[in-house]
Structure formats: C-alpha cells, structure tokens
Amino acid sequence: MQAEYKLRFEGISKVFPGVVALDEVSFGVHKGTVHVLMGENGAGKSTLMKIINGTQQQTAGRMYLDGKEVSFRSVYEAGQHGIGMICQELSYIPDMTIEKYLMLCREHRRRVPGFIDWPKTRAAARALLEREGLSYDPRLTMREISISDIQILEITKCISNDNIDVLIMDEPTSALSNKEVARLFDRIRILKEKGITILYISHKMDEIFQIADEITVMRDGRHIHTAPASEYTPESMVTMMVGRRIDDVYPKEPVAFGEKVLEVRDFSTRYTNVSGLNFYVRAGEIVGLAGLMGAGRTETARGLFGMDALESGQILLDGKPVNIRSVPDAVRCGIVMATEDRRRYGMIGCRSISENIALPNLRKLSRGPFVDRRKERRHVAEMFRRLRIKAPSEQTEAKTLSGGNQQKVVLAKWLLAKPRVLILDEPTRGIDVGAKYEIYRLMSQMAKEGIAILLISSELPEFIGMCDRCYTMYNGRMNGELSRAEMTQERIMMHCAGGKS
Hints:
- The chain is of the alpha/beta class.
- It folds into three domains: about 1-95 and about 140-240, 3-Layer(aba) Sandwich (Rossmann fold); about 260-335 and about 420-500, Rossmann fold (3-Layer(aba) Sandwich); about 350-415, no CATH class.
- It has helices spanning about 45-50, 75-80, 100, 120-130, 145-160, 180-195, 205-210, 235-240, 295-305, 325-335, 340-345, 355-360, 360-365, 375-385, 405-415, 435-450, 460-465, 490-495; strands at about 5-15, 20-30, 35-40, 60-65, 70, 85, 165-170, 195-200, 215-220, 220-230, 260-270, 275-280, 285-290, 310-315, 320, 335-340, 365, 370, 420-425, 450-455, 470-475, 475-485.
- The strands form five sheets. The chain has a six-stranded mixed sheet, sandwiched between helices. A six-stranded mixed sheet has the order 16-19-20-13-21-22, sandwiched between helices. The chain has a four-stranded antiparallel sheet with strand order 2-1-4-5, with helices on one face.
- The protein is globular and about 70 Å long.
C-alpha cells in the first residue's frame, strides 16, 4: 500500500505546549504529482511540511518516503533525501548579496579544504540568473530589493537544485505578479514531467485548480478529506476548510463619510518614481490604491509613513499640513501602516504577542517612567479578544503564529494606538479565506469608528469588495479615480496598464 505513494503519513501528531498542531493526520501523496494542501491558517499545513523537511519532528506517528519509514532531524538530512522547501515566511540574510544567497551551501570549493572558490561561485550564480531570464545585479544585497524579488530568488534557488525529488512550496506566489505566477506554473509542469513530487500550499482558489492533481483539506490540525482536484468546487472546499459556509466573503458595511482626514498634494518621494500625486481619504472611507508591480503604490505608502524621504509636496491631516520625516513622526500624527513584509517591518518575532502590541503604545501604557503592567495586560487582553487572535496566551512568541494571526497582532498594536489614518499594504497576503474574512471584518469596524483607510492590494476582487473609491497608478503617477459603482476588474486593469476605460 505504501509503495504506491512517494510520501505517506500515518497518524502524525505534533503537540506544542498548550496546543495540538497536528492530530493523527493520515494520507498519501503520489509520485510525480502536484498535491495541494488547503486549510485555514493554523490548520497544521505548515507544521506538517516542517516535519517533512526536518525543521520539526512529530510527537507521534510515522512518515514513509518511497515505502520506507523516515524521520529527519534536520533540514540538511532531509535535503540528503531529496527534499527541498520554499517557506511561507521568506528566509534570507538582508546583508548577503544575491550571488552569495543563490549559491549558499552550494559554493564551489578550492582544493585546499575550507576555502571557497569565489570566482567560480559568482560565475555559477550569474549563469543561474541568466538561465532563468532574471536581470538582477548579482552584487546587490537582499535588503536592496523588493519582497517580490526576494520571493522570485528564493523559488529560483530551490528549484535549481538538481538533487530535489520532493519540492514543498508554502505560499510561493503570495508576492508575485500574474506574469511571474504564470512563469512559475510553467516550471512546476516541467518539474512534474521529470517525476518530481510537489506539495503546494496556497489560499488562492484560482491558482489551485490550474495545477493541482490532488487536494487535501485540513482543519484544526486534522485531516478532513483527500481527493482528485476534479471532485472539488471552490464552495465545497471553503466549507470543508472552515467547517461552515461563508456566504458573504466581503463584510463591507455602509458608512457615512466624514471630512477629509488625509490629503496629499503634489506628493513626490526621493529616490523613487513616485511624482506629483494628489488624493484624499475621508473619515470612515476605505480608499484603494491600485497598480501593477513597479507602479509606486508601496513607495507612496512608505513616504506617507515616513519610511522614505519626501522630495516635495504636502501631507495634510484634518486640513493642516504635517511634517513627516520619520516613522515616529507619522505615528505621533496618527498615521500608521501595516507593511507588506510583516516579518521584517511589522513585528518582532522573538517577542511575545503582548510585547508586540504594547511596544508602539508605551506612552499610553506607562505611569511616569515605568510601564503600568496591569494596564498593559488589560489593554492587550482586550485586543486579543477583539481581534480573535488564536494562540495559547498573550505571552506566545509572535513568530510561532500563523500568517493570519501575525497580521492580527500587527493590526492590534495600531488599533490600540487609535490612529486617524490606517495604511494597509497587502493585508491579506498569504492568509486563508477564514482569516481574510476576519481582516475584512476588522477593516469594516475601523471604518465605522471613523478611521480613514488606504488599502493597497494585488487582489482585484478584494479591492472591489472592500473599497469605497480607488485611485489607479501607472509608472509612479495617478492616472485614474473610480467610484465604487464604477469599479470592475477590467476597468481597474485598463487604468493600471496605462490605458483609459
């Protein structure tokens, strides 16, 4: 029975202190297929994948590879058996150059033990970039490129390994454009033709049915169902994932808009293509900022939040000009931002949920020079309940949470700050349909409280479902404004591509 599977799990369980992450999971993965895992954040998908690649070990149960029982104690050991993994949370060293990152642990060695042949290693990295049609300067450091570029390089690094026999992809397209996704899927088909088995985690329904041979649904650490992709519909899959029907995906409630809270005039940022922007957001309004990759959406948000220097123009808050030169300036003015890369900019992974929520709110939580711990615990507990953060306690380390719960922690810290303006840059990147619903619900609540929300998203249905208005950007400039009634996917894309609808 086991021999027909490339991978087989029998009663796999994983218990962390206070949490059962996996509960007797059993199913098989056929050789040379694309096997998709679906489930809400916290369903146990990533934990199971980490057991396969040796990052973690199961508490109970057995895993079989080619019919033989295996248990890997490290990523290196799993790699020796042909298993590679692209993780959901990008793992890279910011100050490492692209060429060194691509060849990490695969450097060419000199005859003298312990010495690396750097000319050959650099040449191999350049050859890999050329073979993949990537035009990056290999001397750039990883911190100098965008999150989507890092995602592309991480995928390239993993799939270029000729020893890979089982490839795990955990949310590989979360930061990629449609063109880059199509290219990745072409590579996946080539890998499948070579007999490589692919385990693929994604929350994007349109992607899944393009590439999946079989689909496994998990919920609350348990195996729910495994079947050929043809036996599923998006509706049946969502119902299995969340254990209930979600009829209203976008819980947008009508809000009476107030006066202009944020207004931008002739806004340009230094060292970017963002130039001459004019737009506004009213109290209680959710305004979208649409554009293709490189249009300048994130650069605009970074400029408003003080992360990038302002070249010229004005930022007005409640009709009065404000001078924002840094992130603390923005926060003091009441402008906060949930960044696209929550791991790098949104939270401190090695700190607790409580500390992450409290950190930007220390003035509010302090009595004189000392933090009022009782007040801190009360406010954090309130945010914990209000945002329905799933964790054993407020003292759980943020890095151990699922993507959706990490995003809730980021939102919790800013919600406690009671901002006037909330900027959301790809707030649902890499999170499941259930967690997305929770984020949308929070957005609606915050809009009802009079917060002005600026939303950046690459998912057009999300735009249309949640925005009251949207501006479109092309090559660093505004080229359109659409009301809620005017917004369609075709019209938004036409503007984003530089045309007029």
